[in-house]
Each structure stands twice: as structure tokens, then as C-alpha cells.
Amino acid sequence: ELVFTCLSQDVVAHEMTHAIVNMLRPHYNEPSNKDVFAFHEAIADIVAIFQHFTFPGVLRRAIQDSRGQLGRSGPLVQLAQQFGQATGSGAALRAVGEEGRPPDRSLYEKLHEPHDLGSILVSAVFEAFFDTYEGRIADLLRIATGGSGMLGEGFLHPDLVNRIADEAADTAQMVLTACLRAFEYLPPVDVTFGDFLRAIVTADREANPDDPFGLRANIAEAFLAHGIYPRDTVSLSPESLVWPVATRADSEHRLARLDPDLVHRLLELDAAAWGAERSADGAEEAQAEYEPYSAKLEVIQKDDQLRRYAEENYHLLRLHPDLPIDVEGLHSILHIDANGQPRREIVCQFTQVDGAADAKRRGGMPERGGTTVIFASDGRPRYVIPKPLPHDELDPLTRHAAEARLAATHAFVAACDRRDPMLAWAGADYAAHRMARRFNFAMVHHAIPPRDASP
Fold it and tell me: How does residue 453 score in pLDDT terms, banded at 50, 70 and 90?
């Protein structure tokens, strides 16, 4: 059979997600630690696999075949099954996990290849999904079995299959939405799996404060079971994993609000864009409306108001006082909370680069720091998520963490050097920019050989 691998929905969704992640966090293309590219691969796999749950027929068939126990393996949680078979592997490109085997916590420390390491994060997310799904269908199984929860032999009743499928689809959408909302709560540079854990817990608490299905506890437990946890928390309870709020009422140092005029300009522009999107009849009209919106948003982003705000509040934003500040990203988001109420927030990313730092010992990667700030619709800061560069004005604990972060980057580069058999014979250009050459996405996906890596 002739298989058109270019039409694989999983592969298209996976690669498109790479582009979206690159738009949301452009500096996640710099491998400053081993999690960065693995995070790229994991998010792309998570989006692609969760798309399987949007096909009702496929989902109902899987539930009937598994008798409601979807399990940690099977076609629903396999990536590009036909693609893998057509290209000679005989199986799907990747799968979430093996049925009946507990996760190996040591793999997170041992693995380095982006796809292999990313599969650890994918497995953790889907472990949380399955635990939440099983909790949501427990009452259905009790009703269907007279309280025992043990289904008898034979086909399941179609009504039960439909109800279980609804719960599975709703749970999949809930978990995927939490993963995507987590981007608003990620630092602009040097992401780690631990950062993503804190971001997804924070995002879900903002959307579902009551957590009726226990998703946040399931996420924390699944990540810990896979050896993933943030280094800057003393507890892995969902409450401790939430990013700290930006300003407390009893704080002596309070972060200032955004200028009301700037907030008004941004929200007014955003409201006009939403109205234009709803009134557009086709793709061409929508694109025509988006282009002036994008240009006007860029004008606001480059406005000196935001840069002055960061310079005036650099200490509370954990920014370096002697380095230029770039406004890397600015946009507003519209959340619909668990009660159906809309809430608009503003997300701003500030970044810095130490141009005087010696990039050669980091394989050509610049030394970056930055901070993501979440503002309420009235300009009040809600969350500050920093990845600072070390400087004398930081408090001792934060400075130690900043120095440790850069030391970890240097250690990661050294570890990559030790695993690179070509480095000793490579040319000077490859050696100076070796991290970018090793980890560009074409090479990660085995599309082209490394340039200038030959003797």
C-alpha cells in the first residue's frame, strides 16, 4: 500500500506546534539546558496525540475495545502509527508508555536526546490525564455495574460508551488547555520541565480554582513519579507549585501598575481585533484585518513606556541594572473561567543579553536572562516569573540561583562536547557555534547532516 506520509495528521500537527512554540517563546530555540529542545518536542507530541481524542468514532471504538480502560498504551496514545510503519520502523514513531510498567524516575537524569527526553514529559502529562479520566468515569462504572465497578463480559451498552467517550474527550481538552495556557506563565528564556510543572499548575488554578477533578494533584504526582520537579520549591503540593503572586498588600516594595493609557491602548486595539475577527467572512478578510492589528501591536510593544516601566522596576522584576532591556513580547489574553466569566490579562516578556560574556565557552549561545510579567486588565501586576542574570543587587538567594543556572548551562555544553566525537576534528566555525549547529531542528529531526562539521 502506498502511504502518503506527508499527509500524516500527527506529523503535521507536531511540526506546526514547533512553529507556534517558536512564535510564543523565540528563545526556546537556544539549547541552554537539556530540557529546552526536549520541551519543544514534548509539547509538539502532546498537541498531536491529544488531537486523537477529538475524533468521536475513533474514541468510541477505543473505549469499546478496551471496555473503558483506555490504558497507557494503544492507538489513541501512539504518535504517527502508520507513518512509522511506512518508513520501516514497524511501529508508531513514539508511544506514551508501556502498560503495567511504573515510570523509571532515573531516566530524566540519564536521557539527553530531545525526543527521548521529551517522551518523559509526555508520559507525565498523560499519566495525569489517565488518573483524572479514571476518576471522572468511576461513578459511571458504579452505576452501570450496580455498585461493583467491575464490568461483565460482552459489549458495552452504546449509551455507556457515549458517556465515557464524552468524559474522555472533556478530560483530554481540559489537560491540553492547561498545557497551552501554561505558556503564559513560562519564563522567556531557559525553560525547564520544572518551570512547565509550575506553569501548568498555576494556569489551571487560574482557570479552575476549585479543581473539582483533582487535576493539579494528579499532575504533581505524575511529574514526581517521572523524576520531574522544580528546584526552587520546598514542597510539591499544588499550592506550593503555583508561582508566587507579584504584589502582596503587606509588602514594603510594591511593583507599580502599568500606565493606564498603555493598558487602554492595548485593550482597545484587542477589542477592535476581536470584533473584526467575528465579522470577517473568510480567510482573506481575516488576514487583512490581522495585518494592521499586528502592526499596531508592534508599535505599542516598541513604545518606550514599557521599557521605562521595566527600567524603573528592574529590582522587583529581577532584571540587570546595567544591561539593556528588550520588550520581547506583548499581548493580551482572554480567559473564560470555570463559571463562564471572561477575564482579560496582559502578558509581557522582558529579556536581556550579556554581550560582554564570553560566548565561546557556551558554544556560541548568548547569555540571556529575562522575566515574564502577567498584568490584570487594570494594569495591576499579578505574577512575575524571572530567570535573572546574576548581579550585585539581587538578594543572596536569588543571586545564588542565577549563578547556578549559568553554571548548569556551562556544564551542559561541556557534557555535549564530551559526547561529540566530531569536535576534535571540526573547523573553527563549527567549534565556535557548536551548540546551535548540534541542536537546530533540521538536525534534531535527522533531515540534514551538520554543516561545517567535517574535518
Answer: very low
Average pLDDT along the chain: 83
Taking CA atoms, 93 is separated from 10, 14, 77, 78, in Å, by: 10, 12, 11, 8
Residues counted in the chain: 455
Side-chain half-sphere exposure of 299, counting CA atoms within 13 A: 10
Nearest to 44 by CA among 71, 73, 80: 80
Query: Cβ of 346: how many Cβ atoms within 10 Å?
Result: 24
Closest to 35 in 3D by CA, of 178, 203, 223, 190: 190
What's the average model confidence in pLDDT over 69-94? 62
Cα 142 to Cα 228: distance, rounded to the nearest angstrom: 34
Residue carrying C-alpha cell 521595566: 310
Read off the pTM: 0.88
Segment 140-173, tens digit of pLDDT:
888 888 887 777 777 888 898 899 999 999 999 9
Query: By C-alpha distance, which of 77, 67, 200 is closest to 134?
Result: 67
pLDDT attached to residue 452: 44
Q: Which contacts of 440-444 are long-range, i.e. CB under 8 A and separated by 24 or more positions?
A: 441/18, 441/29, 441/40, 444/37, 444/41, 444/114, 444/115
Most confident of the following: 37-51, 60-74, 330-344: 37-51
* CA angle at 387 for the pair 384 and 393, rounded to the nearest 5°: 85
The b/e string for 38-58 (b: 16+ C-beta within 10 A; e otherwise) is bbbbbbbbbbbbbbbbeeeee
Measured distance CA(378)–CA(392) in Å, rounded = 33
Separation of alpha carbons 328 and 371, rounded Å: 10
Among residues 130, 119, 164, 117, the alpha carbon closest in space to that of 145 is found at 164
Q: What is the CA radius of gyration of the chain?
A: 24
Torsion of CA 70, 72, 75, 78, to 10 degrees: 150
Which stretches of 35-182 are DSSP H helices? Answer: 35-50, 56-66, 81-86, 107-110, 114-144, 158-181
Give me the pLDDT at residue 188, please.
Answer: 96
The count of other CB atoms within 10 Å of the CB of residue 349 is 24
Element (H, E) at 409: helix 396-418
Confidence label for 361 from pLDDT (cuts 50, 70 and 90) = confident
